[in-house]
Amino acid sequence: MKEYRPQEIEKKWQEVWEEKKVFYTPQRSEKPKYYALVMFPYPSGTLHVGHVKNYVIGDIVARYKRMRGYNVLHPFGYDAFGLPAENAAIEKGIHPEEWTRKNINTIRGQVKKLGISYDWSREIATCDEEYYKWTQWIFLQLYKNGLAYKKKAAVNWCPKCKTVLANEQVKDGKCERCGTSVTIRHLEQWFFKITDYAERLLNDLDKLTGWPEHVKTMQRNWIGKSTGAEIDFPVEGSDTKIRVFTTRPDTLWGVTFMALAPESPLVEELVLEEKKEDLQEFLERVKQQDRFRRTSVEAEKEGFFLGRYAINPVTGERIPIYVANYILMEYGTGAIMGVPAHDQRDFSFAKKYGIPIKVVIKPADRDLDPEKMEEAYEGEGIMVNSGPFDGTPSSEGIEKVINWLEEKGIGKRSVQYKLRDWLISRQRYWGAPIPIIYCEKCGVVPVPEEDLPVRLPKDVEFLPTGQSPLSFHEGFKRTKCPICGGEAQRETDTMDTFVDSSWYFLRYVNPHLEDKPFEPDDVNYWLPVDQYIGGVEHAVLHLLYSRFVTKVLHDLGYLNFDEPFTNLFTQGMIYKDGAKMSKSKGNVVSPDEMIEKYGADTLRMYILFMAPPEKDAEWSDAGIEGVHRFVKRLWNTFYTVLPFVKEENTENLVLKNSTEKELRRKLHSIIKKITEDIEGGFKFNTAISGLMELVNHLSQYLNSVPQEEWNRKLLREIVEKLTLALSPFAPHLAEEFWHDLGNENLVVQQSWPSYDPKALQVEEVEIAIQINGKVRDKVVVPVDISEEDLKKIVLERERVKEYVDGKPIKKFLYVRGRIVNIVV
Ligand code: ANZ
Ligand code: ZN
């Protein structure tokens, strides 16, 4: 028997696929289209088995859909700009481009060894000029439509990476990349106006029925829509009014102080002259605090009394005005009404500064004594001490108070979003230059589209200094104004890499088109992406930005769809020794090593078999060994059968006995089950169990039936269908089997195996029932019924009961498939 040498057959079939261009996707076809997309990697090193899981899942989908008759687009590329490349390059003293290209080559090689069915003619890298030219073009479209703008803003600054970060890139006050605590800087920066799309980004989540609920929830929370009211508080002895945003207008009668954000211009305006010096000291201290922790409930509340008072517009009460560290300038109006009894942060603040606490919402089951309260009561209840609203349930009160405020002209209904505009400027080198020119005469001038790309020069000193490396490159910086021809300067910031990845799924459609980013007819044909597969860590960032850019291009008339990804699947992570794989922990499982040892087919099957693909799973060496044993058993079984079926076909298949009928029934029911496991939502682990089961039934048959009685036509049918069903999971093995079965064509070009509903029917037999030597009854049962089950059925029958007549059963004998003998 031929020996199983995975490395040999895998290499061989990969070459055949490549040579015959079997995964080349025609732009149009009479077949229906299917776009299967995996999140492309950062080429920041080599792949580990966690990445492999992503690509293998994508490959199963792509291969399965091809077998189902679809014209499948399954592309691959690299998210090649960005900080990791630059930081690594600095560390290693080589150019980011060199480092990036080297990693791309390594990754490409790794992926090819896995036998993933990508159309390599569509490979893209976002650092290619032919790609980033169009990233710049997208910037210009946003700019021309008022959706890209520059402003001085308090921005997140990572002191280690020496660049600004988008809010989305700050996790718990730390840089998402390096974990350093983020500080605040005031800089002129470019933003994309994603807030204009907040409402649509929120509402359209409801359309995305093919997305996991938890991802949609994360996006909803990030967009953070709050409804409430804006209310004006007059300042005593001044014409100024302080406008606050509140989601709890029902607590308006309980306001005992006001607080302004440290950055609010009202602070300087309102502070008493004699307090100015102390104020400055306070402001300098708190403005440095990180904005994310500053507003958390636990953080230490700090305030400064401005010496002035406001008037509660509904009670006429005089209330002190503070500036407080937990108020953000960027949210609502940058000012709040403080209600210590019903807001925990206000409660802590009031306790610290001796501000009165006034209860205005009473819980149904008890009274609140402000003296004894240890925390705020934030729940619902009945409004008390609230003038005309006493006795109103607070849940209704919110609406009623808003209407009342509007009537009186004190306030108005208001909607706020947590979502901020997307900060896209980066003071780093390795990114797409922002295509803007500054001219003293003409101001801010966009680079004309025909002048794109604005090339990223290679000879740049890119050590981070806090200033854009491009600003030190005179040749890059100095240019002519496209309008007046005078001396001008280029923008020297580069774009956030999330801009690059916000549209790459469009570029795969026309990856090398020279005069356009994509052909509208082609993207409208191929998109939206039918199945997107990736990690849940992108639930907010990449997936939100991609939805935004798609909507903008839709509104500008380039796309006829406004959501890019119809179905989203988020795969679980692979852990090793209980931890996320990382180089620093030294627990990385390298796919190359596993392929070397077991072959790609085993690795693919193991990754899918270890757990349902959406679940996190722990890598186990014993686990992959087990799958490898199965693969070898499969191989041996196949080549045991092969000589008997090689010259056979399945025409006029006759089943001689119940064993054969039962074996065929199992074949067809397992094919049905595998089909349903794949269709019904990525149950690849149980699909593989199905294949294992089938191999077990087959070897049982081979072991229990003498060789000369083997039903060759049936065996042919089994190995054919098994090979076909195996092919998405272990494509090389399946190709080898298919070839050895005498086929000229390739298994990847075959249809998915069908099952015969008739074959699913359980074979039944009629059994005679003898009682004390005489046939008294007959019963129809499945052929493979166990004696135990049969006994239950027989003894429950009316006629049998009649003859047994309550007497003890002395003997119960079952002659399989024929007769039952009962002696009483
Ligand atoms: C009075 C009040 C009473 C509030 C009460 C809450 C409970 P969300 O749901 O997150 O939108 N707030 C408003 N602007 C703020 C700012 N710029 N910085 C910090 N906090 C701000 O929260 C809205 C609530 O957060 C608002 O409602 C306001 O406090 C506070 F029993 O007003 B509330
Ligand atoms: Zn000019």
Automatic annotation (TrEMBL):
Residues 220-406 form the Leucyl-tRNA synthetase editing domain. Keywords: Aminoacyl-tRNA synthetase, ATP-binding, Cytoplasm, Ligase, Nucleotide-binding, Protein biosynthesis. The keyword Ligase applies. It catalyses: tRNA(Leu) + L-leucine + ATP = L-leucyl-tRNA(Leu) + AMP + diphosphate. Gene3D superfamilies: 3.10.20.590, HUPs, Isoleucyl-tRNA Synthetase, Domain 1. A motif ('KMSKS' region) lies at residues 580-584. Residues 40-183 form the Methionyl/Leucyl tRNA synthetase domain. It comes from the Bacteria. CDD domains: Anticodon_Ia_Leu_BEm, LeuRS_core. It is an enzyme of class 6 (ligase). The keyword Nucleotide-binding applies. It is found in: Cytoplasm. One of its GO terms (molecular function) is ATP binding. Residues 418-620 form the Aminoacyl-tRNA synthetase class Ia domain. A motif ('HIGH' region) lies at residues 41-51. Residues 661-784 form the Methionyl/Valyl/Leucyl/Isoleucyl-tRNA synthetase anticodon-binding domain. This is Leucine--tRNA ligase.
